[in-house]
Every structure is written in C-alpha cells, then in structure tokens.
Amino acid sequence: GDRQHPVPCVTSGQPQAESLQLLLHRCQEAKKSAYCPYSRFPVGAALLTASGEIISGCNVENACYSLGMCAERAAIQRAISEGHTSFKAMAIASDMRDQFIVPCGACRQVMREFGTDWDVYLTKADGTFIMKRLEELLPLSFGPEDLKK
Q1: How far apart are CA 38 and CA 132, in angstroms?
Q2: 47: CB partners within 8 A, 6+ apart
Q3: Binding positions for Zn(2+) (predicted)?
Q4: pLDDT tens for residues 13-24?
C-alpha cells in the first residue's frame, strides 16, 4: 500500500531530499497562479528535469471549457519550450484535504510521451504526499516506441 510521508521525508532516494523539498514547495507556489474562475479548483505542478531544473505550471481555464489547460501539461509544455525533454519527477498540488491530487488521463498520456520511469508526487493540502511511478499511473501504456513497431 501507499505510505504517507510528511514533507521532510523522502522515499528511496529519487530526487535528493533538498530537491524534493523544493519540488514540493514549487508545486504549491505554482498553484497560487492558477486561473480557475469556473471550477475554483486550483492546481499547481512542478517538473524536475534531468538537468536538475524545476519548471512549474498551473491550470488555466477558459470560458470555452474544453480549451482549459491542466497544470501538469502546462508545466510540460513550458519545459519543452525551454529545451527540456527528459524528466525525473513531477509534484502536483491542489487544495484537496481528504485525498491526494491525481493527474487526469490526458495528462498521464502527455507525461507518458517522455517515458514511464519517473516519479509523480501526489500531495494533499497539508503537504503530505505519496509517490507513484508513472507506469503505475498509466499501466499498459502506449508511447513513442509503439509507433516504431
């Protein structure tokens, strides 16, 4: 099962404790920039690149609802536009108190484009988190290598 970790704790060493702390902090900070006048459900995401940079994103809604953008995809698109294509981890924050925030299916597929072996830190409003591998969030997935078969 999942173990809940207070913010200072880290599992089996993926990002080091300091970069994990910063990643968790940055997703909370990104949440404050969310533009969500319709859902009133702010989400922030922070992406740790292979080079150690942290790039954040927030959800951006639109009056034409289907044009809204999730925080996770906003962070990935920003990272790509800044030249990053290899990622180690992502942390996601919302205001939910009773359950951990999880990425939607579309975000899971966009994350999958860049591999299955990275960590996703799912948080609650109090800062506790669980860590999942992307392949756990999107099992039996379809990715770029499947187009080469």
Answers
A1: 29
A2: 54, 55, 56, 57, 75, 76, 79, 84, 87, 89, 90
A3: 70, 104, 107
A4: 456 788 899 999
Give tens-digit pLDDT for 29-60. 999 999 999 999 999 999 999 999 999 999 99
Strand order in the sheet with 54-58: 54-58, 44-49, 87-93, 119-123, 129-133
CA distance 86 to 108: 15
Q: Residue positions in the annotated binding site for substrate? A: 59-65
* Per-residue confidence (pLDDT) for residue 149, from 0 to 100: 77
- What is the DSSP track for 38-51? TT----EEEEEETT
Q: What are the binding residues?
A: 59-65, 70, 104, 107
Question: Angle at CA 16, nearest 5°, toward 10 and 20?
Answer: 65
Cα(111)–Cα(106) distance, integer angstroms = 9
CB 121 within 8 Å of CB 90: yes
